[in-house]
User: Fold this.
Amino acid sequence: MKYEIKKEQVHDTTVDVVKKMLESSDKLNLKDYDATYKNFRWEDYYDEIKWFERGKTLNMAVNAVDKHIGTPVENKIAVIWESKDGNVEKYTYKQLYELSNRFANVLAKLGINKGDRVFLFLPRIPEVHITFIGILKTGAIAGTLFSAFGYDALKDRLGHCDARVVITTPDLLERVEHIAEDLPALEYMIVVDREGKFEDKEVKGKKELNYSSLMSDVPAEYNPMMMNVDDPAYILYTSGSTGKPKGVVHVHGGALIQHLTGKWVLNFNSDDMYWCTADHGWVTGVVYVILSPLSNGMTTLFYEGRFDSEKWYSLIEKYKVNIFYTAPTAIRMLMKYGDELPKKYDLSSLKHIYSVGEPLNPEPIRWGYEVFGRYFHDTWWQTETGAQMIVNFPCMDIKIGSMGKPFPGIIAGIVDDDGNELPPYQEGNLALKRGWPSMVKEFWNNPKKYESVFKNGWYITGDMAYKDNDGYYWFMGRSDDLIMTAGERVGPFEVESALIDHDAVNEAAVIGKPDPERGQIIKAFVVLNKGYENTPELLDDIKRFVKQHLAGHAYPREIEIVDSLPKTRSGKIMRRVLRAKELGLPIGDLSTMVK
Ligand code: PRX
Assistant:
């Protein structure tokens, strides 16, 4: 693909517009965005995925895996796994089919029924794909948990939706055992021990069972449950700006948009090699590491290790990755290691590169072009939307800094607080017309909260944005206190709750502080209890405590000890005041603050 850069005036700034000169070898799956968007009806695309009964019943797992059996895809590699030590395992679609059938049989044998909650608490190992797909086949609801979660984060999530089973590893097991007594609904821990040593036992009234023994004891055939389009498939707990995390429930009918976004946005072609660096603990991992690439019959690289610039470049070279999907923080971390390092690797296999999770500023896009010879295409979406919503399509010019345009079938708008649409260039709430196939079906056990996110037929995303005259969307920030740190979503309330559980902490308030690498870092303002002194050792201890109790990624990197916190007369902490002070911005209306 060749590019030409033009300047364009957008609002009050001049932006670079990347014009693409398409060549026939570019093989774009979506060629004409405007025409497709204009005439789009979901039902016209039903035949893209596998149904039991067209438009009515299906199973997301059958669409992802079983439909390929008996086709040339069955012997294709679905997942290439590389461990952090460099061991490689490859799984064909046929193997994934049989192994997930076995796991579905394991669950059936344990008495797991349609609608029961079964969670993965696993590092990035092949059993993630196997067990996730297996759970969906039984009609149970699959949940995933980030492997950095600590005791309280696990307890809140597993306890809130009465999970019956957790699949984990010997290394992570202790964290579940630690809270097991607080989880009355939990019956089984299935332990994936890749060294094969784990022995079944009972701890605190819960059965701990060896995964391999269970798997070898059941047949490789299974009759997947027929699900309605709006039957739940998976649940992801995600942080909000207030309260504990919400259980975002997604339905089997989401398979259609998962498939189409993979095909049209990520431009999945069957001979391409794909790598998405997201963790399955978050929605990008569930949808674009597991479900969408499988639905499109792709070969996906699944790397166990963490970020490592040399390793990442070497993986792109080794596996000749064609399509790469990552996050702005990762791009900025790659940038930090400079332009010389990537020159040591052959990265010429890359055809399409994408980003998600935080604002993608012009600088990493330009750097990406220097290093990869491609432009990062930004994609915008959320856990609640279940699939990419506003994106830069390969066939479309990119206005650098814009999130792009709505996916066909998605009606986006900028609305005021009453849900009235605003004209171009006016900043407001980014909203989506209610009712696309992967829209969150419910927040587990929280119907009041669910209805509160809709206004006047719009789903209100919590993001602020504006639209330009050509229908491109531009991200402005959040309308609330939600923190995005290194692309991971953290609710201030959860961090504050973990902080005040520390003996030394009397009160705490948490904000997102801009950070050049991580987008935001978590900063805590803490009032100490009497008898405690502000020492570096105490601050380290508080950080360690939050890591252990909440999560390895959600601890405050900065802690400032203060005498008191700004509060409203009703006692609510005014995080915006702390944020404004931290950033040296105008503090705004203080009429409700206690002086
Ligand atoms: O604030 C937006 C930001 O991430 C939030 C959603 O977080 P989560 O549910 O964890 O899902 C992340 C990945 C799908 C959004 O409300 N966000 C996501 N993508 C972008 C973004 N902010 C700016 N630009 C994006 N492309």
Notes: The domain at 481-583 is CATH 3.30.300.30 (GMP Synthetase; Chain A, domain 3). The chain has a mean pLDDT of 96. The first strand starts at residue 2 and ends at 10. The CA atoms of residues 335 and 477 lie 23 Å apart.
